[in-house]
Design brief:
73 residues, Thrombin, subunit H, 15% helix, 44% strand
Length: 73
């Protein structure tokens, strides 16, 4: 995922609890994530961001359904 601001630079293995996934017209999901990698990125407009690679930690059924919807799209 892309994260702004860039001062949030977690080390691999960091557990992020209660990360919110907002979806238009649907309930917000709260998930726990483990950061696997984090690297700086310059976007096409010149803005800076971080690209986090994360793994879901014990996702609830609604989060599993969201993951499945992206995996089969």
């Amino acid at each position: 995922m892309l994260v702004r601001p860039t001062y949030l630079h977690p080390a691999p293995g960091t557990l992020v609890k209660g990360w919110r996934i907002e979806r238009p017209g649907k309930a917000t999901l709260k998930v726990n994530l483990e950061v696997r990698n984090c690297r700086p990125l310059v976007l096409s407009g010149g803005d800076h961001a971080l690209r986090w690679g994360c793994q879901f930690v014990d996702p609830a059924d609604d989060a599993r359904a969201l993951i499945a919807s992206y995996a089969t799209a």
